[in-house]
Every structure is written in structure tokens, then in C-alpha cells.
What does this fold into?
Amino acid sequence: MIEEKGILFILSGPSGVGKGTVRKALFNQDTDLKYSISMTTREKRPGEQEGVDYFYKSKEAFEALIQENQLLEYAKYVNNYYGTPREYVEEMLELGHDVFLEIEVQGALQVRENFPEGVFIFLFPPSLEELKNRIIHRGTESQELVLNRLKEARKEIEMMDAYDYVVVNDDVNLAVKKIQAIIQSEHLKRERIAKQYKQLLEDEL
Ligand code: 5GP
It folds into this structure.
């Protein structure tokens, strides 16, 4: 078999659209995907675990990572930093594993600049009203935070243009199936297959 680099998949979309839920449902199924665990400065929520949900960092530690260029992308979102560790992602791709990021939209735009060959999936709310309800009923945050998240959401929806695929999250299982179909299709793309076969021919000659 020909050594091949993995594909970087980026799931993004507006605040409260259900990115985390869809990502968890995807990873609950049998998958070869590697999930890149993000760094964040936000407080750990009940039930979350260090090194499973996030790597929790102080603001100072996070800013040091930025200075050291250890993040593939990062964003400040509702007064906290969130970022993707560069080394893990690059190492996994190099080893031929597909890597999956679940990040907000500013970060996704940065990845688009650095990894234009990545596959960008925009998770879209069934309706704005539905989105508003989901954010409000999450119930773990203050009124001010909820209003901030809603404001972000409106801006984020306008960013759909920078993506390769749009998946409407009207049903989690269906959204997962669609993402799996995208992953499968990307592996069947003519240019990827052709590259493999050309390499094979070169190796034979
Ligand atoms: P939460 O605080 O609800 O876990 O996440 C808030 C937002 O940050 C979500 O939209 C989530 O997708 C995003 N997020 C999580 N990790 C990262 C990351 O590494 N980089 C960026 N840019 N956003 C992230």
C-alpha cells in the first residue's frame, strides 16, 4: 500500500448549532479519525475532563503557546482563548491518519489559510429560531453570555462561503451520516486516487 498523508477535516459553524454534539456522536461510532483535543482558557464545565474534552490552560500559558507558534490556529471567543495544538495535527497527518477539528469560525478561517487542502464542513442550524432556543436552553451560562453568543451566531452564519460542504443539523444521526459520507467521498476523489496510482507506477519502474 502506498504511504499517504491523512486528510484534515474541519467541522465548524455558528455558536450553539450543535458542533460538539455532532462531533461526539461521530466519535461514538467506530471511526479511524483522530480527534484533535483543543486547548482552552475557559473554566472546566461539570463532567468535563482534562485531556478528554480540552487541555485547560491559564491565560499566561496559552499566550506562551501562541508566542512559541505551537498552535495551528487560535481564537478568542466570548473572552476565552481556544486553540488547536499544531504538533499533534501535523504528526497524525504525516502518519496517514485523518484528523478532525471541531472549532469556531474564526479559527476555521485561519486553518483555511494554512491548510487550503483541508476539507471544511459548515454545520448549519435548521433555523435561526431553533438556534436561539438551543443557546438559551443550554442553561449553563449567564444572560450576558447568551446574548454574546447570539450576536456571534449571526456573524458566523454569514461566513458559510468559506466552506466546502454544508450540513444542516436538523437531526444528529443524519448529520453524522452526512459527515461520514463526506469523509468517504474525499477519499475517493480522483486527484487523490490518481496520485496514488502514479506513485505506484513510478515505484514499479
Ligand atoms: P465550548 O466553550 O462550548 O466548549 O466551545 C465554544 C466554541 O469554541 C465552540 O464553537 C467550539 O467549537 C470552539 N472551539 C473548541 N475548540 C476550539 C479550538 O481549538 N479552536 C477554535 N478556534 N475554536 C474552538
Summary: The domain at 1-33+98-205 is CATH 3.40.50.300 (Rossmann fold).
